[in-house]
Amino acid sequence: MNVRRHRIPRASRITGLAIAAATALGLGTLSACSTDSAAAGNTDKFDVVASFYPMQYLAEQIGGDHVNVTTLTEPGQEPHDLELSTKQTAELGEADAVLYLKTLQPAVDEAVSQSGVKTKIDAATLTKLEDHGDVEHEHGAAEEEHAGEEEEHALDPHLWLDPVKYREVAEGVAKTFEKADPDHAADYRKNAAALTKKLDALDTQYADGLKNTKSKVFFTNHAAFGYLAERYGLTQEAISGLDPESEPSPARIKELQTEAKADGVTTVFYETLVSDKTAKTLASDAGLKTDVLDPLEGITDKSKGDDYFQVMESNLSALKTALGAK
């Protein structure tokens, strides 16, 4: 099987924030951009601000009754494009801890770096991020023009789609919670142990379910599934790069059509938080099916499940069908 890889562009940079303005306003009691009505920093619990759903889920599962978790990314909002209001930036400064994933949301990275939060937990430091942007210059004249240029790739931040890496982050978060809030350390350890046990079981489900398949190649809307593919011996081919809003070139679309035939690809996966137009056009042109493979960047009423584990199990089912699991 000759699987080609494509250039993954560096994630889009978001304009700078008015952080200085937020500081000048003073850090008063401000309502959270969250499903939780209590504002961060104004409860008698351990107040945690999470950057987006996978971080929110970890904080809630590990913290249990002892934490008040608010999130900077509303349900249904595409996290890559997040821009923070001055209220959110001010609220961040009121929290006891912030849990985020550096490089995924530049706006959050900037706000955290300038905030006075005592406990800053960067999930990217709790496991190893990798570069899934290997490039082979075999895509015709357009690629040849860049053959002599130095390639720039962003490290892939989508670690939570690999249950093993997500477990590593969970363990690191628990240890930090224990240190920052020692009165409840025993409960944090207990909750983390229960969560990591479930993640181990999920890893086993994926390994067993994807061990025997007719094809190992799957097409996705954007390159969110590199860690998952690597963990379970699959090959992700993304229409777009790490940035879900980037537009594929005509040459890329043609290449995918050719590869679909060569590698027995049956399905083009799209996701719930970004447009499915390109994925459905490719599928139509190449005579392929479409289905949802959720990168789990947020839970909405369109999600095939109510939480991380339910959606991951739905993803496994979709992959098994598309890849012809035996």
Structure characterization notes:
With 326 residues, this protein is of the alpha/beta class. The protein is built from 11 helices and 8 strands. The strands form 3 sheets. A 4-stranded parallel β-sheet has the order 2-1-3-4, sandwiched between helices. A two-stranded parallel sheet has the order 5-6. Helix 2 (53-63) links the parallel strand 1 and strand 2.
The description of the largest β-sheet is: 4 strands, parallel
Strand composition percent: 5-15%
C-alpha Rg (nearest Å): 21 Å
Q: Enumerate the spans where pLDDT stays under 50 for 5 or more consecutive residues.
A: 1-38, 134-151
SSE topology string: HEHEHEHEHHHEHEHEHEH
Say how many strands there are.
8
Structural class of the helices, strands and pairings? alpha/beta
How many angstroms separate the termini?
19 Å
Mean of pLDDT: 83
Q: Please work out how many helical segments DSSP would assign.
A: 11
**Residues in helix, %:** 25-40%
Strand order across the largest sheet:
2-1-3-4
General shape: globular
Q: Secondary-structure map with pairings?
A:
Elements: H1 19-25, E1 46-50, H2 53-63, E2 67-71, H3 86-94, E3 97-100, H4 106-113, E4 119-122, H5 141-144, H6 163-180, H7 185-209, E5 217-220, H8 226-231, E6 235-238, H9 250-263, E7 267-270, H10 277-286, E8 289-292, H11 308-323
Parallel strand pairs: 1-2, 1-3, 3-4, 5-6, 7-8
